[in-house]
Amino acid sequence: MQIMKLDTLAQSIGEWLRGTGPESDIVMSSRVRLARNLPQYPFVSRASEQDRADIERFLRERIAMSSAGPGLESIDVGGLEEIDRQFLVERQLISREHADAQGARSVAIDKLEQVSLMINEEDHLRIQCIHSGLDLRGVWEQIKVVDEQIEQFVPYAFHPRFGYLTACPTNVGTGIRVSVMLHLPALVITRQIDKVFRSLHKISLAVRGLYGEGSQAMGDFYQISNQTTLGKSEEELVEQVGDVVPVLIDYERRAREFLVRETEQNVHDQVSRAYGILRTAQTISAEETMQLLSRVRMGVLLGLIGDVKIADINSLLVRTQPAHLQKIRGIELDTKDRNIERARYLRQHFEAGGQNVN
Amino acid sequence: MKCQQCEKQAVFHITELETGAVRELHLCEDHARVYLNQTEGGGGSADEAEDAAAAGGAAGQLGVGQTADELAALDQKACDMCGITFFEFRNQGRLGCPHDYVQFAKELEPLIANIHGATEHTGRRPSRSPTTAEAAAASGTAELTGVIGLRQEMKDAIVREDYEKAKENRDAIRAIEDRWIPPARPESQE
User: Fold this and answer.
1) How far apart (Å, rounded) are the C-alpha atoms in residues A70 and A63?
2) What is the pLDDT of residue A351?
3) CA quadruple A235, A208, A213, A219: dihedral positive or negative?
4) Helix, strand, coil content of chain B in percent (nearest 5)
5) Distance, CA of A108 to CA of A69 (rounded, Å)
6) Predicted ipTM?
């Protein structure tokens, strides 16, 4: 395992942003995470500073000696500046809780940024795997192997009845969270989204915003995930989430068709205005950017905007976030200057015909 | 303590565990019944029998029929390994160590049933040594969580300069770790 230099990451984008894979017009990414703990230490929230340092070292060294180790690079999250932690959150390599936590903690990631292993988040170890598009089975097959490889060298806290033991009883059993990130602009515009969410809650699925727990749904991006983790097998839980996705895709497609059929001029106007603002604004917030990019993304998929690629929009969604913007520009900026810089970055990007501008 | 809805004495102390947040409610008997009937039933199912069953499950979790004294005694119960009390868990919504699932099994079971609608894990099991994986993982966890208590005792012994005891514990910890932690493989440094 090597030690990662963060600035090299800023030049690239993660695999899950490439905008490829099945159904990637609506499904941004598919993700699975597993919560695991060591039996010989208290859970993180009750672990002393010394314990946390010991847990971090034990897991980092053990992961490195496993077959999963050679492809991974380790980042000392506890030793990072806030902006760098934020940067990792924006790329979805660590959670906000992990960024904001105290004490020794780290993350190991692979080159494609598909696999990330968070040490000392809420649980001692959180294994995460993300793929672009709808590929829950593929994600599950990959994470299962990583989990087994690590298990060769790490004892996991396990109870014959309750399964894998976790700091919060809401994760006990399989410790699995299966989620898909969906782009549902037409359901938002046609005001059907609340109805959809209510029916998802009834079948024990949770709906969250772009950055997981407690985050706002920005730019019409939503995460759908399982709520229960015990009593069903991992495969059943993967299916539970997987089964509902085609239905949601179908709803969104129909809503898009409806919009084009009934209100084409209106929709065309909306997406063109959104595109116009992104190309000409002089100062723009991260939220407005995301909202407008969402509209443009829909416009591209409906064939209303011709010269933009989906992968570019996906990339811009992350690269216009505060920490990315500052990393790319190489300077720290306050909110006001960030908004000016973001507008400049967007203008340059679109003038250059979608080439990444650094 | 007064009921949060009226002036009566609160006899039900409810901890709602939602993902990422814990909410505490203190209610009199009447308001507790109203609350339980509202919250249970899986989001608007009109099936009364189902509602009653679900409320029954929740009631078990909350200790219906238990007096305030009994609940207070339960709150005082502490884990032998990490020392967390049930009260602290109720407040924070996070357990202290893996041994809590053994120590508080009786108290956690209705809570787990309420969250997941099940109490038996049916998914994957550790597979380190295929023949005895399950038994080994379970007893490994049982012995290794003992290390948490031994480590704390060792620290306490050092504080009171009882080095004999500290050494004893250190050796006991090593013995358990040697038995249950898979042997290390030297990392190939490149």
Assistant:
1) 9
2) 87
3) positive
4) 55, 10, 35
5) 9
6) 0.89
